[in-house]
Amino acid sequence: MRLSTVILPIHCWAEGRERWLGAEQLGFHAAYTYDHLSWRSFRDGPWFGAIPTLTAAAAVTRSIRLGTLVTSPNFRHPVTLAKDLITLDDVSDGRVTLGIGAGGNGSDAMTLRRAGEEPWTPRERADHFDDFVPLLDRLLREPSVTYEGPLYAANEARNIPGCVQRPRLPFAVAATGPRGMRLAARHGQAWVTTGDPRLYETGTPEQSVEAIRGQLTKLGAACESIGRDVAELDKILLTGFTPDRPLESLDAFVDFAGTHFALGFTEIVVHWPVQDSDFAADEKVFERIATEALAQLGH
User: Fold this and answer.
1) Cα–Cα distance between 87 and 77 in angstroms, integer?
2) What are 34-72's pLDDT values in tens digits?
3) Which site from 57, 185, 224, 288 is most exposed, i.e. has the minimal number of CB atoms within 10 Å?
4) Which phi and psi (to 5°) does residue 226 adopt?
């Protein structure tokens, strides 16, 4: 059982630095950040780039794992992303996990539209994801890659010396649909979910648990179809998008975490509190969760 946090990239580094250091001091397994150009209610405020933020965090921390939750093809290309990730893995001395997903039709998709181009449909996003992940996998494993896919290409792309982590840094694939599940089964070292978004406002915690149980069943089937043991994948739950309110108290979190660890999750991720937002929470409760929750769960 692992407990991790997400630190939104909304703080100038003089302030943000203290949160990344604080995440390590609180004993979190990993600290992640979102990889967007902007995001929802934070669009009109400060929002910094994920890779530079993680590189700065890598330079001031020593042991905590670092990563994205999640990167997507919406504004990334596998060739340039691979170069950035290899550099980040080097600076962090092998502490990077790449959370990666198909992306959505929000501000990232709208911001980078070419003239006359509409944002990708869900099918088109899945198509890009399907081509993006296998190419990125090769770019991070091999010193030179030539590839011609349906949507992405590389011509003798050089990536020397490669990742510190071998054969490459781990992928945590965010997926709920069949194509994404197959990518997680084939290329992932972990699978990520936020639960069923349809239940966030009107569902119940019990309905959420059943929906997530169904997702885990689909993941197992995707693994079985290629002869992989689903137990090989870590299962990561990013909180904040289910009907539960696990940061209301230490007891509420322990109950929530116990339920989801029993489903098979190996890592639960909580947002560092951001006041006056959807991620508002009592910072003292948050610190108690970080330092006491796993002990109460017997881990």
Assistant:
1) 16
2) 999 999 899 999 999 999 999 999 999 999 999 999 999
3) 224
4) -115, 10
Decide: 9 and 38 in contact? Cβ < 8 Å. Answer: no
Q: What pLDDT sits at residue 111? A: 64
Per cent of the chain over pLDDT 70 is 96
Q: Where are the beta strands (DSSP E) in 11-139?
A: 30-33, 65-71, 96-100
Torsion region of 136: left, alpha or beta (phi above 0 gives left; psi -120 to 50 gives alpha)? alpha
- Rounded to 5°, angle at Cα 284 from 43 and 206: 75
Contacts of 82 (CB under 8 A, 6+ apart): 136, 139, 140, 157, 159
pTM, two decimal places: 0.95
Q: Whose structure tokens read 């490669």?
A: 162
At residue 267, φ and ψ (nearest 5 deg) are: -150, 130
Tokens for 53, please give them. Answer: 């933020």
- CA gyration radius for the chain? 19
* Digit-coded pLDDT (tens) for 186-238: 999 999 999 999 999 999 999 999 999 999 999 999 999 999 999 999 999 99
Average pLDDT over residues 123-133: 95
What sign does the CA torsion over 79, 136, 191, 207 have? positive
Q: How far apart are CA 203 and CA 242, in angstroms?
A: 8
Which residues, listed in sequence order, are joined to residue 203 by a DSSP beta bridge? none
Instruction: pLDDT band for 105, please (50, 70, 90 cuts).
Output: confident
Contact predicate 187/173, CB 8 Å = yes
Could you tell me if 128 and 166 are in contact, meaning their C-beta atoms sit under 8 angstroms apart?
no
